[in-house]
User: Which sequence fits this backbone?
């Protein structure tokens, strides 16, 4: 599998991947956008995961499209982060979102979606994945805790791998009334 290279990302996404502020291009300690996390390549997140394991940190993983970030997403991410020391968010690439949600999606590019996630205090790392599910990524990372929204309780990609390695798989109840698809439908209905 070929990994995406930085030059295919937007300038803000490239800056975030380098650990810099997407607006000013300077280090995160002086970043006024509030970015607290980092966008990692697959190879980088695997090395970082090994470091966190050596440090004895409990690593939590969740994934999604996060196309239009809403309070339901934020609450899920906060609950996921509370299950451990580090939260890694697997983010579907634009091509993955199109395959899962249709040709009109995503509304926001993967660089923009990553940027929105990276400013959340609950998120420590974001990594994109091209596949339809994050199973292969999860099998490589082997997080201590794998979390998904309860709407996915019938199928949680990576469940078998995480449980076989001694990890836990948890579902989080969804916040009623929040759905990216419903938000898009509402916006479109108000235009007619």
Assistant:
């Amino acid at each position: 599998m070929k990994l995406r290279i930085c030059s295919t990302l937007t300038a803000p996404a490239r800056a975030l991947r380098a650990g810099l502020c997407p607006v000013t291009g300077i280090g995160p300690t002086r970043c006024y956008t509030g970015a607290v996390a980092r966008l990692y390549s697959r190879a980088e997140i695997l090395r970082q995961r090994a470091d966190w394991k050596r440090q004895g940190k409990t690593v939590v993983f969740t994934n999604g499209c996060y196309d239009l970030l809403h309070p339901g997403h934020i609450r899920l991410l906060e609950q996921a982060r509370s299950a451990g020391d580090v939260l890694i968010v697997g983010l579907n690439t634009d091509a993955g979102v199109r395959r899962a949600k249709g040709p009109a999606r995503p509304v926001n590019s993967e660089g923009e979606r990553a940027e929105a996630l990276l400013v959340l205090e609950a998120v420590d790392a974001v990594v994109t994945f091209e596949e339809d599910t994050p199973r292969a990524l999860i099998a490589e990372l082997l997080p201590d805790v794998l979390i998904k929204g309860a709407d996915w309780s019938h199928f949680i990609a990576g469940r078998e791998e995480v449980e076989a390695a001694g990890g836990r798989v948890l579902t989080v109840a969804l916040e009623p009334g929040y759905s990216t698809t419903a938000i898009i439908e509402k916006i479109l209905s108000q235009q007619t």
